[in-house]
Write a structure and sequence with these properties.
Pfam families: DCC1-like. The protein is an alpha+beta fold. The chain contains five helices and four strands, in the order E-H-E-H-E-E-H-H-H. It has a four-stranded mixed sheet, with helices on both faces. The protein starts with a strand and ends with a helix.
């Protein structure tokens, strides 16, 4: 089984987050699509999310997760001690999402937007992008 990580394709921080996940997902559990792509827009519509969703999104087992819930669910499948971060799911969602929203609101200011240049992934990684 695989899950799909949807991310802001214009965001340097989001791109770095995807690269972080790829490096620690040696089982290839995740596939990836930008929110702006046709696949991303189709998944947003299928899960009744707004077209202009401003959050990381995870589609896993037919369910859509956003914000901190998506990020924490992703950690469960990463190699190493990153799995332990999933324990933060016990914190109330408003508290977790307050931190998530603060980072999200400042991500362009802190990390910038992508220009027209991007990393060319290996063929093995490239096939995981939808």
């Amino acid at each position: 089984m695989t899950a799909i990580v949807l991310f802001d394709g214009d965001c340097n921080f989001c791109d770095a987050s995807v690269q972080f996940i790829i490096q620690r997902d040696t089982n290839g559990y995740f596939n990836y699509a930008s929110l702006q792509s046709d696949v991303g827009q189709k998944l947003l519509k299928e899960h009744n999310m707004p077209e202009d969703l401003d959050s990381f999104m995870l589609v896993e087992d037919g369910q859509a997760y956003t914000k901190s819930a998506a990020a924490l669910r992703i950690t469960r499948h990463l190699d190493g001690a990153w799995k332990l971060l999933y324990a933060l799911i016990v914190l109330p969602a408003p508290l977790r999402n307050f931190v998530y929203d603060y980072i999200a609101a400042n991500r362009y200011k802190w990390f910038g937007k992508k220009d027209d240049h991007c990393m060319l992934p290996s063929p093995e990684v490239r096939q995981r992008f939808l």
